[in-house]
Design brief:
The protein is an alpha/beta fold. It folds into two domains: 85 residues, Ribosomal Protein L15, Chain: K, domain 2, CATH 3.100.10; 214 residues, Up-down Bundle (Four Helix Bundle (Hemerythrin (Met), subunit A)), CATH 1.20.120. Helix content is 45%, strand content 17%. The chain has eleven helices and eleven strands. It has a five-stranded mixed sheet. It has a four-stranded mixed sheet with strand order 5-4-3-7. Strand 1 and strand 2 form a beta hairpin. The longest helix has 25 residues.
Amino acid sequence: MSFARGVVLDQIIDIATDGRHLSRDRGFLKVTEHGTEIGRTPLDQIAGVIVHAHGTTWSSSLLVELAERGAPVVLCAANHAPKSVLMPLEGHHIQGARMRAQWNAKASFTKQAWKQIVTSKVRMQAAALSAIGEPSAPLEMMIRKISSGDRTNIEAQAARYYWPRMMGSDFRRNTSADRENALLNYGYTVLRAATARAVVAAGLHPTIGLFHANRGNAFALADDLMEPFRPLVDCTVRAIAAKCGPEVDTEAKQQLARLIATDLPLGDGVTPVSVALIKLATSLGQSFEAAKLTLALPDPPDPLALAGLGK
């Protein structure tokens, strides 16, 4: 088990050792093994719980407490990709009206929102490549061609250019593979959990996406909103693999979980990733209700900050 600390109110709890029991104890999440307590953390500080281990058990009262705080419990397969998520059914005081507005949003609105998200993602990818000394001009040219709904799939074109330069010419992104792919799976799971929490906190429903629409995907909207933040994971994984190798060990998990505390430029200041996600989700909820798109999307960090991730 690792307690990966972010900003004061944001921790990702990772359960990676078999046979642990999770319970609630006077405002804390308590972890025990064979009846002996081995760790605890305040429930109010938890952004999400990620479970990889076999034989993990938990109390119903703990799950209720986590749900009341909007903290998802993510169950992962051996390759660290999420397979199930426990999310609260309700949790925001204006959830009903906001969800109706979300459900009734016009296609033109969601397509414009997706255009802005893809633009932000490719801009972050370009900044990430530039920070590691790789040419970013082709991505910057692609940004100008992104259309409503990304009809010409610039996102995929950018990925084909981006991945060989970020991870090496032989790299292929494959969620079922090991090594760097497994590290990416874990990093994206951390990011997805924090985004799902932000979506629920904003009174939105995580299964109603802007672009992602797989019926079996409980994270559809979270998968949409996390896209601009993915290159932060990529930079971290690249550095971890170069420094320590591509194993998903405790140190690597802690490095990736700490990403939610990374400061990003947003508006006139900087804010941690976890807060930037909340601001983005809230701005989308407000946009749905006003039928006017105003998304709080982050700017890329400076090159030194990007190059320093994972080191």
